[in-house]
Amino acid sequence: MRNAIKWFEIPVRDIKRAKAFYEEIFGIDMQDFDANGNLKMALFPSEDGTIGGALCQNEDFYVPSGLGTLVYLNADPDLEKVLERTKRAKGRIIQPKVLVTENIGYMAVIEDSEGNKIALMSKN
Fold it and tell me: What domains can be seen in the chain, in order of their start residue?
């Protein structure tokens, strides 16, 4: 197995609000994807052969929560900058930046605009 994670989905209540939040904190552009009338998605940028993921809105299937699986998103090159943008985007820092190990780097945990608990990791 090359990677434990192949794809991830983050549940949201308001796709526009959540997309704006993640675009702000990571400084990225996310692609809108409408799978069908009931499922709206915003895709995180990824390259072929890498792990991808999306924000997903469907009131019958996705429910945002801070109690479910914890996904670690890449905050390279500098976690502190992502945490600063999280505050500006009206997110909440649950676990401030801490060193895991010198080899692994740093981690933090935030609450996004939808109430999801999301972990962040970076080398710096």
Answer: 7-122 (3.10.180.10)
Q: How far is CA 13 from CA 2, 26, 49, in A?
A: 32, 20, 29
Query: What pTM did the predictor assign?
Result: 0.88
CA–CA dist 81, 104 (Å, integer): 18
Q: Which of 124, 118, 5, 10 is nearest to 72 (CA)?
A: 118
The side-by-side arrangement of strands in the sheet containing 39-43 is 7-11, 52-57, 39-43, 31-36
Residue 58 contacts residue 39 (beta carbons within 8 Å) = yes
Assign 49 a pLDDT band (cuts: 50, 70, 90). Answer: confident
Average pLDDT, stretch 78-98? 97
- CA–CA gap between residue 48 and residue 26 (Å, rounded): 20
